[in-house]
Amino acid sequence: MTGGESDKHFVHALKKAVSGGDVKMAKRLIKGGVDINNPSFWFDGTLLHEAVATGNESMVQLLLQAGAAVNAQDKSNRNSLHLACRHGHKLIVQRLVNANADVNAQTKDGRTCLHIAIWRGYSDIPRWLLKAGASVNRQDEDGWTPLHWAAKSDLLEVTQLLVKQGAQLNVQDKNGKTPLHESLAHVHTDVMAFLLKCGADPNIQPKVGSSLSILLGSKSCTQASVSTLLSHGYNVHRDRWLHKGTMSRTLPSNIRPLILAQQSRVEALSQLCRTALRCRLLDVSGGKDLTPLTTLLQLPQLLQQFLLYEH
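The structure corresponding to this sequence follows.
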């Protein structure tokens, strides 16, 4: 067997050991000098990618100790941490973070590990990633931030965490949609109410439709969810969708009275003041959560509650 053929044989043997979880054999081959960073798996992934994908913590530890490139990327620009977050391997995520994996590396479609962990519905992993320095406002190629994914997935605790960490509430994706729009589309009422309280603007209109039309487009839409939107500063008079002559044909019969009542109502001065103050506070906060700012300004409790729709 020639040197080249011998090398290929040992590389193949190591691949087999890693895929099969044979730590003892892998350790023997690595000690013999087999290249552990050879991108020879599917999509040009490395041995570390494979070990992470299979969830073998002992194998991951062995490869890291042997000098595996923790930030090596496959053809989709995924590093090993992307895979660990995708598969929900919590201990491996922590081990890779401790090995200085790049928590803000982006795949070809622009997703970070934080995007992926939230998309997959995990709650602990995003917390660890944020502690490790994950960017809370990084956008993928579609303009989605982690908050878009949390709102779509009805992950209230993750949504609260992201907002506390400085997530931009009103950032728009390529279609002009904000995280609030995603919560409306799926009628995630708790997430919707939380975002509205913190400063999400219900009057931002996407390229197609409006906040109200997005909410009504869901089969899960209820009177209560529409009332929540209307009571948190939604301006029916600025809704282009309502003024296209389609209202009578498309509004559900149980929703129409709510909209008509809102359209005929003269907004109270207190509500106008609240809207103006919230807009100003949102500017000062840089588009982030209003709650800490109302506390910092030492506003009277009743005024704080009023501004945050708690009164």
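The two ends are 81 Å apart (CA to CA).
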